């Protein structure tokens, strides 16, 4: 599977998820799903950014402590965002909690799909 196909399928899955969450829980479900997508997507983006910084730092001869500090800082950045989003979904009530988990699951499923597509596209 190519990356282009994966991105198209991920977008279609996200759009279908918006429709399903609205059908399942109305605006509360839609809000919970959106919070799940945002919080998890933000966490993945932070890790991706920090991994790139650490890799470039290692290539330029940075000390191992640099990587440790960056990983701890990334965790400290993403954790509050995720906790606030989860707390908002819980306070919204109704089906927002379940739809929040649906958004979270979709992001991680797409991440696994990207990893599989990357392994399949690399030459042996």
Q: From the alpha-carbon coordinates, what is the Rg to the nearest angstrom?
A: 17 Å
Determine the N-to-C terminus distance.
16 Å
Arithmetic mean of pLDDT = 85
Question: How many alpha or pi helices?
Answer: 3
Percent of residues in helices: over 70%
Low-confidence stretches: none
Could you explain how this protein is built, in words?
Helix 1 packs across helix 2 (64-92) and helix 1 crosses helix 3 (96-121). It contains three helices and no strands. The model has no long low-confidence stretch (mean pLDDT 85). It has 124 residues and is mostly helical. It has helices at residues 3-59, 64-92, 96-121. The protein is flat and about 55 Å long. It has a domain at 39-119. The two termini are 16 Å apart.
Write the layout of secondary structure elements.
Blueprint: H1 3-59, H2 64-92, H3 96-121
Helix pairs in contact: 1-2, 1-3
In short:
This protein has 124 residues and is an all-alpha fold. Helix content is 90%, strand content 0%. It is flat, with a radius of gyration of 17 Å.
Descriptive key words:
124 residues, mainly alpha, 3 helices, flat
